[in-house]
Amino acid sequence: MIPYVRKIDFEYGKVDQVSPLIRRVIANNPGPFTFTGTGTYIVGKGEGVAVIDPGPDQPEHLRAILDAVAGETVTHILITHHHLDHSPLARPLAKATGATIYGCAVKAPVVEDAVKLEAGYDTFTPDVSLCGGGAVISGPGWTFEAIATPGHTSNHICYALAEENACFTGDHIMGWSTTVVTPPDGDMADYLASLDLIKSKGFAVLWPTHGPPITEPGPFIDAYKAHRLDRERQILAQLAAGETRIREMVPKMYVGVEPRLYPAAAHSVFAHMIQLVRAGRVATEGAPALESEYRLT
Ligand SMILES: [Zn+2]
Question: Which among 163, 158, 154, 265 is positioned nearest to 207, based on CA atoms?
């Protein structure tokens, strides 16, 4: 079982000091993919402040961020990925503060699915590209390393804060929920590798964009990964039992889950299926698709 953490004390639009270096303001955009809303993090104080994931394009959230940093200078805006609940406010905040935007633009245009699986996509372009990770970004009293963590999206970046052995994990690792991995931009093999990468860094605390921090990252990531491997085993069991189509497997695998969530679940199964086909454990005719027929090799 994943040891979810969901208890979070906050008031919309009000800034809270959540660690010696970190402040947080939560946007009023609660929903099925955002939990209580987007947590915008403010790191540092005074002359050089960094803002991580400014969030949705809401004037009242922009105002809340600007109020939180009144009298200070925002120099850096760091983006984890291009979903609508993370990046759209970057440009308005940059205009208001003169800050530089860092992140990785999406490589391929994303095909909008008929099913709403995520908060939606933003056509975001950073001023400084961090694709591939590795860049070190610093200001007065803080040092970030960009860590490329593809999986949830191809352009996802986590930001390690050296001074607190902390990591801002965006939607890659969240305490309140598992992450949606939707092909083609999402990739399950990349996702699992990115979980291993964050685990290997030995962070003391993870700060997801939604929900409270994860204070025991090691066991949490182990359980998070075990959950995915469990799903993979369930898929192999379905195939072994003679099921061939994703839409028939989903109700059997997601017992107790509301049928309205089946389309999202089907995409998650599809993400696993692509990985299993690539690994040669499952076969299908042509390129794997949602409606394809699958069988064990
Ligand atoms: Zn996202």
Answer: 158
